[in-house]
Amino acid sequence: GTTLGASAAEKGRYFGTAVAANRLSDSAYTTILNREFNQVTPENEMKIDATEPQQNQFSYGAADRIVSHARANGMQVRGHTLAWHAQQPPWMQSMSGTALRNAMTNHITQVATHFRGQVAWWDVVNEAFADGSSGARRDSNLQRTGNDWIEVAFRAADAADPNAQLCYNDYNIDNWNDAKTQAVYRMVQDFKQRGVPIDCVGLQSHFTGGSNYPSNYRTTLSSFAALGVDVHITELDIRNAPADAYRNVTNDCLAVARCKGITVWGIRDSDSWRSGESPLLFTGSGQKKPAYDAVLAALNSG
Ligand code: G3I
Questions:
Q1: How many angstroms separate the CA atoms of 205 and 203, rounded?
Q2: Which of 265, 269, 273 to mutate to test the pocket of ligand 1 (most atoms within 8 A of CB)?
Q3: Which residues carry out catalysis (predicted)?
Q4: 17 close to ligand 1 (CB < 6 Angstrom)
Q5: Could you say which of 78, 92, 237, 259 has the lowest number of CB atoms within 10 Å?
Q6: Other beta carbons less than 10 A from residue 90's beta carbon
């Protein structure tokens, strides 16, 4: 193939990007988006603060614009994200206990129902584990409603959209030896054993380059996959975009049958949440970087 999406498709995978609704009017942006990518993840537009700014008042305009652009251009959509400690609207931030639990499940039910049939994968729960050596859950208002909040979220999403693939998504779960990776692994193993509906794990993969790209990343991907879930690289970006690291990540995904695809967290460096680090595949003026060539070559090799 001559583009990321077409080349990934030849390997039975997708190649996607985060998309911001307010950039869809930038033709330099949409030219690259439509040419290169066959999957999109709304960068902010499906988060709780965006979709339910006031309790029980849902707002889907920006997310719907991305979904309709995706559908018109044959791109699959990853929904991001139904339950998260961050980017909660003020009304939810101030809630706790049963009221918050009920608000969470209502939010999931309403949003997953609205997008039923249009979202291939949902990040049902995002970033629920703590960093560091504890292997514990992250403290949050959602966690304080009870340790079962994650499985309750997955069951609510499954009931609302039985055909969507339901993912747990997190960062710093790339190194197989990290306590956080092991803790997420044990949760997924437990969910599979008890029949909690989980289909996939998303590894965000925000790398800082060099030693931050773990040499055992492929082991992590294949270990999660061996639990009977798909794995997705959901928010890839790498400080200074070294071609080697991008090539290695691509090859690691291709080496694991259940690694379904790669999503980069933005198109041009100027679109990135860490734009000062130039971590993406295209320059601010839309030129392909060496990392782009490395990824494309990896997708087309073998
Ligand atoms: O839209 C408002 C704008 O109206 C306002 O003037 C401006 C002033 O700060 O803020 C704008 O909103 C910002 C929004 O991005 C859109 O640009 C928010 O402040 C800013 O917090 C928000 O940042 C997003 C961040 O998540 C928030 O948690 C980033 O774009 C987004 O890339 C980032 O994505 C996360 C994933 O969801 C989860 N994994 C980590 C990843 C990177 O942090």
A1: 5
A2: 273
A3: 235 (nucleophile)
A4: no
A5: 92
A6: 9
Question: Residue for token digits 């939010």?
Answer: 107
pTM: 0.98
pLDDT tens per residue across span 246-278: 999 999 999 999 999 999 999 999 999 999 999
Catalytic, 235? Answer yes
Sign of CA dihedral 103, 104, 106, 112: positive
Cα pseudo-dihedral 140, 105, 236, 284, rounded to 10: -100
Rounded to the nearest integer, the mean pLDDT of the chain is 97
Instruction: Strands of 1-51 (E only): list them.
Output: 14-19, 39-42
CA of 254 to the centre of ligand 1 (A): 30
What one-letter code names the amino acid at 186? R
pLDDT in the model for residue 211: 67
Q: Running DSSP on this structure, what letter comes out for residue 211?
A: G
